[in-house]
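W.,

You were right to be curious about this one. When I first looked at the sequence I had no strong expectations either way, so I just let the prediction run and decided to look at it fresh. Below is the sequence, 262 residues in total, followed by the output.
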Amino acid sequence: MSTRGAKCVLIDLSGTLHIEDEEVPGSVEALKRLRESDLKVRFVTNTTKESKRVLLQRLNQIGFDVALDDVFTSLTAAHDAVREKKLRPMLLLDDRAMEDFDDIDTEDPNAVVVGLAPDKFHYDVLNSAFRLLLNGCPLIAVHKGRYYRRKDGLALGPGPFVAGLEYATGTTAEVVGKPETRFFLSAIRDMDCQPGQCVMIGDDVRDDVGGSQTAGMIGILVKTGKYQDGDEGKISPPPSHVASDFPHAVDIILGSQQQCSS
């Protein structure tokens, strides 16, 4: 599917624009080129290791020109789900992400929310969550990512731990982040853009590309971050486009825009 006629672009963060505190080479300049076009840009991320404020500081320090309203996170989606359902969650989240739930009552929990929280994925904490779920409390997964890229290599995401709780309790988690269609549609709700006019760029073939294409968007898979050889063949239909990195993905989009205007 061509990106010609696109009006907006959704961009994954970790693994696509940066890996921890390092820019994916050329991405700062590529983002500037994209912003100079008529396309609307928003960043969508399943990152749950830190709050939106801390994430924004990291991006700005790397050199990316990103404002708070430019970022739509799975933590935002989880917060909204908890608030709408009036739940008091046990939060299995990294301490740096907790401030996004400062206005949520967590006393006497009646739900479990799981994000990426390496320091909390140990027996006693998981067993407490297990007991809540056995008593009928709902399980909300910020996302079910299998793994992600760190400087020292691939690392387990929250998905395996969510799956373990599901298996042990017979519970099915409500997933609120990527690849859920609701997440992608919520991200473009105020962008005056239909799904077919939106391009999603990411390094996760299932959560970024497969999820966005299911929502009716155009997916571009980049070969950085968590990408592994052969990922293109793991979803059907396959990615609309495959790019070597984010700058190449921008080239694909802007090239189509130029053809459309000529």
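Here's what jumped out at me. Residues 127 and 165 are 9 Å apart (CA to CA). And, maybe more interesting for your project: DSSP finds eight helices and 14 strands in the chain.

Coffee later to discuss?

I.
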